[in-house]
Design goal:
Elements lengths: L18 E2 L17 E5 L7 E7 L5 H8 L4 E6 L5 H12 L3 E6 L17 H9 L4 E3 L10 E5 L3 E5 L17 E6 L2 H15 L11 E4 L3 H10 L4 E6 L5 H12 L3 E7 L16 H9 L3 E5 L7 E5 L4 E4 L5 H5 L3 E6 L2 H15 L3 E2 H6 L14 E2 L1
Parallel strand pairs: 4-5, 5-6, 11-12, 12-13
Antiparallel strand pairs: 1-18, 2-3, 3-9, 4-7, 7-8, 8-9, 10-16, 11-14, 13-17, 14-15, 15-16
């Protein structure tokens, strides 16, 4: 391995200032027996209660719509994209039942066709909700993007999602993207989620205290780097996009330390790399990772929109944070660290199943395909 590559990350801008949005549908492959849908387990954290891991698209996204519909006292929803008609309808009906409903939306999703003209993705939901009297606000513009995807119900349960609240993100047909949702009922976590939402609603600063919360731009870099650094045998990354120099350097260093590092990146070959328009997106990072000994593959189906990291087959991260500089430094992002054995086992099985169908970087880079810029319907990316 060329060790000079380890230090080349500081000069690599590809996707390092980018994060990506909604996902296109993908073909569904069977998961191993016993890991379909959701699984629950007890966290080892003191005073903990039930946590549940939902795996999409094998599990339909209706569980989130149902949770909002059954709310008794409050719903607090914060998301980058909200277009799912069933969820929007549930928010309106829940509000009309007298339940307190608050919604925070990103006002200016990135428009790849015209960066100076943000996408109007959330305007229809904003209009529908405000017309129905639902309290809805645009998120704090001090964040580059509000890319978090979370909803807290009755101050008892928070759903921390990798999926946007769209038809493709919360697929009801089993043909959406690979996504994960943590249903978190750990009281300290839920209290933190509620407190952070209140701060964002009022556009106040907030510093999380829970050791399990991963929040951009406050502590996500520290938490994710610490998780990776803790690995003794293996780091497994499954993330839509990557490119942050510090994260990439640490992954390369773990390889040099004898730790096995595997990675799945989204197959975005139909989108151009920002760094080199002659190459498809994600391939620059994948090639450099490969050259540093990281066993990187592209996930073709189901399309990868999730963001997850697992170390030593145990403790893992799930959330909205991509491994890009913008996602870590500038956005409002939200994720959670999990050490529950049952959930860790399920996560490992799903990630390994996806990895077994991955496509090698060399095939992606050198298969001779014509790859003009093309954004598939329903697929949106942003910086």
């Amino acid at each position: 391995m060329n060790r000079n590559h380890v230090y080349s990350w500081a000069f690599v801008a590809v996707l390092g200032t980018s994060v990506w949005g909604c996902a296109r549908p993908g073909t569904l492959f069977p998961l191993p027996d016993g890991v379909r849908g959701s699984v629950s387990g007890q966290s080892r954290s003191p005073g903990s209660t039930l946590r549940v891991l939902h795996v999409l698209p094998e599990e339909r996204g209706t569980f989130l719509v149902n949770a909002v519909s059954r709310a008794k006292s409050s719903v607090k929803l914060q998301v980058y994209m909200l277009t799912h008609p069933g969820l929007i309808d549930a928010l309106v009906k829940t509000h009309r039942r007298g339940v307190s409903v608050q919604v925070l939306l990103e006002e200016k999703p990135y428009n790849p066709g015209n960066p100076s003209a943000p996408l109007p993705t959330n305007r229809a939901a904003y209009k529908t909700l405000s017309s129905a009297g639902v309290p809805v606000r645009w998120s704090d513009p001090s964040f580059r993007f509000t890319h978090a995807k979370a909803v807290t119900v009755d101050d008892v349960t928070t759903y921390v999602s990798t999926a946007n609240f769209t038809k493709s993100g919360l697929s009801t047909e089993g043909r959406g993207a690979r996504e994960y949702v943590i249903e978190d009922r750990v009281p300290p976590d839920v209290a933190e989620f509620s407190a952070m939402f209140a701060a964002d609603w009022e556009r106040r600063a907030y510093v999380p205290e829970s050791p399990d919360l991963v929040v951009s731009p406050t502590n996500s870099r520290e938490k994710i780097l610490s998780l990776i650094a803790s690995a003794r045998k293996e780091v497994f990354v499954q993330v839509e996009v990557a490119g942050d120099p510090e994260v990439s350097t640490l992954l390369a260093q773990k390889v040099r330390d004898g730790v096995k590092v595997r990675a799945l990146l989204a197959d975005l070959r139909r989108l151009q790399s920002e760094d080199d328009p002659a190459l498809p997106a994600n391939t620059d990072v994948a090639r450099l990772w490969r050259d540093n000994g990281i066993e990187v593959l592209f996930q073709k189906s189901p399309h990868l929109h999730a963001k997850a990291i697992q170390v030593d087959g145990g403790r893992f991260y799930v959330g909205s944070v991509n491994l890009t500089s913008n996602s870590l430094n500038n956005n409002r992002e939200l994720g959670v660290l999990i050490d529950t054995p049952d959930l860790a086992n399920k996560m490992a099985q799903v990630m390994n199943s996806d990895y077994s169908r991955g496509q090698t970087v060399s095939t992606v880079l050198y298969n001779g395909e014509s790859l003009p810029f093309f954004a598939p319907p329903g697929f949106i990316f942003f910086r």
